[in-house]
Design goal:
Layout: E1 10-15, E2 22-35, E3 59-74, H1 75-79, H2 103-113
Antiparallel strand pairs: 1-2, 2-3
Length: about 120
């Protein structure tokens, strides 16, 4: 996915550790993918001894917040939406930190969340 993410691409902001886990807003990609430097630091909790600088395993992109939803969209709420039945986020056992979202899925969630003034 790092090769597919481009500056300006829209992003749904998802809080996985919130109670409840929810989509809370919209951001956009503000810098293309680059090596995740924390993977190379033994003192960092994200250190990965298998990741090498010359062939890194982990990448990240920078994002910039555009707006926060009027109403957070919890997983429970989204699971009840017919248009989102095939969304990766709602698939049982899905653990990806970055996931593809179709244009229609994105629009459905944005419409439900509402744009804060």
């Amino acid at each position: 996915m790092r090769d597919q993410m481009a500056i300006g691409d829209p992003v749904l902001v998802y809080h996985s550790n919130a109670n409840p886990s929810s989509v809370v807003g919209v951001a956009h990609v503000s810098a293309t993918a680059y090596q995740d430097h924390s993977a190379f630091d033994p003192k960092d909790p994200h250190y990965d001894p298998k990741s090498k600088i010359e062939s890194p395993t982990w990448f990240m992109v920078d994002i910039q917040l555009d707006w926060i939803f009027k109403e957070s969209q919890s997983l429970e709420m989204l699971r009840g939406v017919t248009d989102l039945e095939k969304m990766e986020l709602l698939r049982k056992g899905s653990r990806l930190s970055v996931q593809p979202v179709s244009k229609s899925e994105f629009q459905t969630i944005v419409k439900r969340g509402g744009k804060n003034a």
